[in-house]
């Protein structure tokens, strides 16, 4: 057992400063799988090392996607390691051999959590979800379900289910993204409206959006050129500006 702070320091550098220089990186399998099971930020940081062992050293982790699915909670859009987590999640969900129910469960959970996410996270996660639809066309039933969410008395998706296969995500509809089309931030509303159209075959590049911060978003808005908006108004008369007001007869603003 390591202190939490030391766990984080080790896992941050393990994938690029330790594993490449080991004669037998597979010796780290137990350490990384235990770290992955701890939860929270430690699990997020263990993903990098696990990714190397799975792809380069044939590590088999039967409940890997179940654990990855359980890591999706409201804090995922706010944590310090958000960019690293979504970069790896994008890689893990890139295989076309994944079952549709699994990808649909990830799409629904990410969409549900997006309802309370900040704008900078939404501008990243909406293209992320669009890319999942491009890779897995069978999941498009979530968007193009006949009748849409209006015909559903309740959402069949079970958010609390630990197993993606038991979440009933494929029976649901993506009303969460439809809700984001009325978001207060115009860029988010515009990004969410893309799902109303047929998606292009080329995937969106999300690498530049992974580390987008609220400060950058605000700075971008401030630097936009202001557009002069013509206004039509009636010149104010009297003290309270009402027509036929008794005050207008006796008081003047001149």
From TrEMBL:
**Residue ranges of domain CCAAT-binding factor in the record:** 43-192
Alphabetical UniProt keywords: Membrane, Transmembrane, Transmembrane helix
Signal peptide range in chain numbering: none
CC terms in the record's Gene Ontology section? Noc4p-Nop14p complex; small-subunit processome
One Pfam family for this entry, by name?
Answer: CBF
Q: List all membrane-crossing ranges.
A: 31-54, 85-107
GO BP annotations listed: ribosome biogenesis
Family affiliation: Belongs to the CBF/MAK21 family.
Descriptive protein name: NOC4L protein
